[in-house]
Design a protein that fits this description.
With about 290 residues, this protein is mainly alpha-helical. The protein contains eleven helices and four strands; from the N terminus they run ααααααββαββαααα. Strand 3 and strand 4 form a beta hairpin.
Length: about 290
């Protein structure tokens, strides 16, 4: 068996396992959903802090930064599910951020501004987007009395991202001629992006048809599902490019090796870090129309 074949098999197996964990964790139970994304938030922050700590004169408190991000996710999940009804739950997170700033007075690190900047980048770039998936998953009525676990909305964001990747790869391989962003990601083409977007629109229409078929219809119409698909495509692509720029700045190919053949946590969730906040804003915009 050649190395190329062995790598393909390894990549396929790890990809199937990843998809199985994601799908089961997102549709099984609300507490499984919360556990899954708390773990993802922590693992991604841990990977990120390890990467930036390799930069000269940067020392981010890896443990506290990771715990703070995970706690923020749990705090928002608690608010959205009704397990916690007081915003005092955010005090430990605020105190941990204050500590990370004040602690620089005593560490003796050469460049405190770098440490602060990379610490807050991790919270804004990684923790906050994952936290916002709670908004998609747990619907709350305006008066706060009714709460509903909408497993389809967060799952659909990832389905759109996976569909876009598949469509972009296939159409880009067959038709790709014009580079999308050669300075950052030479492998991406306009043809691939357009092909991925078209496939996502088709999948979004199918999801919308299924979700609105029967006695129980979803809050989104078919057109709104397709709009969500387009939002995910655009911002997911930008998320991919942002992470590519991050890796180029650090001079690395993959963010990690936790998934054989697929890289690290940032490599797997780069698109979602922009797509999730965009999806939340899109859905809130619909409520204002």
């Amino acid at each position: 068996m050649s190395d190329k074949t062995r790598n393909l098999i390894t990549r396929s197996i790890s990809g199937v396992i990843f998809l199985a964990i994601m799908i089961v964790g997102m549709i099984f139970r609300p507490d499984a959903f919360i556990f899954l994304f708390t773990l993802i938030t922590g693992m991604t922050l841990w990977e990120y802090t390890g990467l930036v700590n390799n930069i000269e004169d940067v020392t981010v408190n890896r443990l506290i930064s990771t715990i703070a991000g995970m706690y923020l996710f749990l705090a928002v999940a608690g608010i959205r599910t009704g397990m916690v009804d007081n915003f005092i739950v955010f005090v430990p997170y605020i105190l941990s951020i204050v500590y990370l700033f004040i602690s620089e007075l005593y560490t003796g690190n050469k460049n405190a501004i770098n440490d602060w900047a990379y610490t807050m980048l991790g919270q804004m770039y990684i923790a906050l987007p994952f936290v916002l998936i709670n908004i998609l998953a747990f619907e709350v009525s305006p008066d706060g009395t009714t709460r509903h676990f909408d497993k389809l909305l967060p799952l659909s964001v990832f389905i759109f991202l996976w569909t876009n990747d598949t469509g972009a790869y296939c159409s880009g391989s067959l038709l790709g001629r014009h580079k999308l962003f050669p300075r950052i990601s030479p492998g991406k083409s306009w043809e691939g992006s357009i092909g991925g977007g078209i496939l996502v629109l088709i999948v979004a229409a199918i999801i919308g048809s299924i979700a609105n078929n029967g006695d129980s219809t979803h809050a989104l119409s078919i057109a709104e599902w397709m709009g969500l698909g387009l939002v995910v495509v655009f911002f997911g692509t930008w998320g991919d490019l942002v992470e590519s720029l991050f890796k180029r700045t650090l001079g690395i190919k993959d963010s990690g090796n936790i998934m054989p053949g697929h890289g690290g946590m940032l490599d797997r969730f780069d698109s979602s870090l922009m797509a999730i906040p965009a999806a939340v804003i899109y859905l809130y915009t619909l409520t204002l129309l």
